[in-house]
Design goal:
Radius of gyration: 22 Å
Number of helices: 14
Helix content: 25-40%
CATH class of the largest domain: Alpha Beta
Structural class: alpha/beta
CATH superfamily of the largest domain: Type I PLP-dependent aspartate aminotransferase-like (Major domain)
Distance between the termini: 46 Å
Shape: globular
Number of strands: 17
Number of domains: 2
Strand content: 15-25%
Largest sheet: 7 strands, mixed
CATH topology of the largest domain: Aspartate Aminotransferase, domain 2
C-alpha cells in the first residue's frame, strides 16, 4: 500500500496554521509531534460524555472511565507485544518512567560501587536519575563513548561489563545523531552475564515496530507526546519478574490494598505504581493515538518516512557552510547541524519568520555536546505528515538565513 501523505496531513488541523504569514512547516517532531483529529476529537468526546475517576466508583461514568482507561493499557500491551497488560505502567512521561525504575528498582537493588553502563548519546532523562543514585548511594556510572555518527565498538561495550555491573540503560535512537544502536545485540550480551537492560524508546518507538518479547528487554519506556498523543502521559513496560520485586515509588490512593495504623499492604502491579488519580484522559488519548499510528503503519508509513528522511539529508548537504552531526545516518528521521559562523539560536529564530519550526540548543544531551566539541546545534526532525514541500521550505528558509550574515 502506498502511503498518502497529503491525505494524512488533512488529519492534523494545526498544519493549516500560518506563522508570520507563512504556512506552518513543522520540523520539531523529535521534541513533540502534533495530534491528529482522531485524538483531538476522541479526547473531547471522552471528557464531554464519559469522564469520571477510575477504579473507585460503581456509578456509570466511573465504570465507563475505568473501562476506557484499562482498554488503553491493553492497546499498549498489544502495541509493544508485552506478555500481560499488568506489565504496562502509566507514567507522566518518559522521564518519569526512568525515574520510576531508578527509584523503585535500582535504589532497592544496587549498592555502593555497583555500576550502571550508559552511552554518551543518552538524553538527560536517562542520565540524571543515575546521577541521583551516584550521589545518594555511591553507584558508579560507566560511559560508552561514540563517534560523530553515534557508532561505538560492541567489543568495547563488552569489556566495560564487570562483576559490579548491575544495570545497562541505552537509547533506542539518539535524539541528536539519529543513530540506532544494535539494542538486540546489547540485550543478548547483557543477559549472557545476567544484567538487566533498560531501553529508552522515546525516539525509536515512533519510527519502527517494537516487540519487547522479541527484544527481550527488561524495561522499555516511551512518551505519548512524541507518538501523536497527549503530553503528560508515558509508558513503562517492565517484565513481571522485576515489577514483583519493585517497591512503589509514590504512595497514596489506588496503589494500596489495605491501610492500617501500624501496617500497609501494597496493591499488585500495575496499580501499585500508579498512586493517586492518574492522567485518565492522557491514557485514553494515548490509546487513540496508538490506534491511529498503527493504521498508518499498515498504510506504509515507515517507507514514506524513509524516503523523506533521505530527501532531508540529501538536500541539507547541498547548503554551503553546513556542518552535520550524524552525517552517515541518512535513513534517520533526525538531522542535527550547525552553520559556520552562526549560532543555532539565530538560525532557528530567523527561519521561524518563514513559518519553519526547528529546535536549537543542547537537546538535553550535554555529554554528547561535549563529545562533539560544541555548545549547541540546530535540529530538524520529520513525522508522518512531513512532505517534500516541508523540506524544500526548510532549505529555502535556511539559505535565506545564511545569506543575512554574509
Amino acid at each position: 500500500m502506498t502511503f498518502d501523505v497529503e491525505k494524512t496531513r488533512k488529519d492534523f488541523p494545526i498544519l493549516s496554521r500560518e506563522i508570520q504569514g507563512n504556512n506552518l512547516t513543522y520540523l520539531d517532531n523529535a521534541a513533540s509531534s502534533q495530534k491528529p483529529i482522531d485524538v483531538l476529537e476522541g479526547i473531547k468526546q471522552f471528557e464531554s460524555n464519559d469522564y469520571s475517576n477510575v477504579h473507585r466508583g460503581l456509578h456509570t461514568l466511573s465504570v465507563l472511565s475505568t473501562s476506557a482507561y484499562e482498554e488503553s493499557r491493553k492497546i499498549v500491551q498489544k502495541f509493544l507485544n508485552a506478555k500481560s497488560f499488568e506489565e504496562i505502567i502509566f507514567t507522566s512521561g518518559g522521564t518519569d518512567s526512568v525515574n520510576l525504575v531508578a527509584s523503585s528498582y535500582a535504589d532497592e537493588h544496587l549498592s555502593k560501587g555497583d555500576e550502571i553502563i550508559i552511552t554518551t548519546m543518552e538524553h538527560h532523562a536517562n542520565i540524571v536519575p543515575w546521577h541521583f543514585l551516584r550521589e545518594r548511594k555511591g553507584v558508579q556510572i560507566k560511559w560508552i563513548d561514540c563517534d560523530q555518527n553515534g557508532k561505538f565498538d560492541i567489543n568495547q561495550f563488552e569489556k566495560a561489563i564487570t562483576s559490579k555491573t548491575k544495570l545497562i540503560a541505552v537509547t533506542q535512537m539518539s535524539n541528536v545523531l539519529g543513530a540506532s544502536p544494535d539494542i538486540k545485540n546489547i540485550i543478548d550480551l547483557s543477559h549472557s552475564q545476567g544484567i538487566p537492560v533498560l531501553i529508552d524508546g522515546c525516539q525509536g518507538v515512533v519510527h519502527e515496530k517494537i516487540d519487547v518479547q522479541d527484544l527481550d528487554c527488561d524495561f522499555y519506556l516511551f512518551s505519548g507526546h512524541k507518538l501523536y498523543g497527549p503530553n503528560g502521559i508515558g509508558i513503562l513496560y517492565a517484565k513481571s519478574q522485576y515489577l514483583d520485586r519493585m517497591r512503589p515509588w509514590r504512595g497514596g490512593g489506588d496503589m494500596i490494598k489495605y491501610v492500617e495504623k501500624e501496617n500497609i499492604t501494597y496493591n499488585d502491579a500495575p496499580n501499585k505504581f500508579e498512586a493517586g488519580t492518574p492522567n485518565i484522559t492522557g491514557a485514553v488519548g494515548l490509546g487513540m493515538a496508538i490506534n491511529y499510528f498503527e493504521k498508518k503503519i499498515k498504510e506504509g508509513l515507515f517507507d514514506h518516512e524513509l524516503k523523506i528522511s533521505n530527501y532531508l539529508h540529501n538536500q541539507i548537504k547541498t547548503v554551503k557552510g553546513i556542518v552535520i552531526y550524524g552525517e552517515e545516518n541518512i535513513d534517520s528521521p533526525i538531522v542535527t547541524f550547525n552553520v559556520e559562523g552562526q549560532h543555532p539560536h539565530d538560525i532557528s529564530t530567523i527561519i521561524d519568520n518563514y513559518g519553519v519550526a526547528i529546535r536549537a540548543g543542547q537537546h538535553c544531551c550535554g555529554p554528547l555536546m561535549d563529545l562533539l566539541g560544541i555548545n549547541a546545534s540546530a535540529r530538524a526532525s520529520i513525522a508522518m505528515y512531513t512532505n517534500q514541500q516541508d523540506i524544500d521550505n526548510f532549505i529555502e528558509a535556511l539559505e535565506r538565513s545564511i545569506a543575512l550574515f554574509k
